[in-house]
């Protein structure tokens, strides 16, 4: 299986993913990955409907790792959407090897001590440590809202905000 792109975006499936990212990276299947979302029958039903005809699976992290590493799925080209940076880290530690890792959007979570790194990405000190661990695994981490936008080095953005 070719994992064309891993996007960290707590909005999961929305217009930017279905109309821009799927076509831009050449994906034919979206994997939405988060353990809580995968247990929610409403989200499991609604997220594929929001994908506008693109094959979509809503999986827990362990299920996603098993799916991506299963030789039976070797011909697929997927776009993985991880809800949180911690989801992405576990996927990468589990052997998922995307061609690109991008932080798309992280809305602030009420009650957390976050800083806005961009106008759409909130980061806590704990999140920053997770992002750095992703880079330590050998992945280049970028911030890019749309494929037509320029890529920004995400660690540099964290450093500018003192994270």
Provide key terms for this protein.
alpha/beta; seven-stranded mixed sheet; 7 helices; phosphotransferase system; transport
Structure notes:
By secondary structure, this protein is of the alpha/beta class. Helix content is 38%, strand content 26%. It is built from seven helices and nine strands, in the order βαβααβαβαβββαββα. It has a seven-stranded mixed sheet, with helices on both faces. Strands 6-7 form a two-stranded antiparallel ribbon. Strand 8 (141-143) and strand 9 form a beta hairpin. The chain starts with a strand and ends with a helix. The model has no long low-confidence stretch (mean pLDDT 95).
Task: Give the secondary structure arrangement, pairings included.
Blueprint: E1 2-9, H1 15-25, E2 29-33, H2 35-38, H3 41-50, E3 55-59, H4 61-69, E4 77-82, H5 85-93, E5 101-105, E6 114-118, E7 121-124, H6 125-136, E8 141-143, E9 152-153, H7 154-160
Parallel strand pairs: 1-4, 1-5, 2-3, 2-4, 5-8
Antiparallel strand pairs: 6-7, 8-9
Helix pairs in contact: 5-6
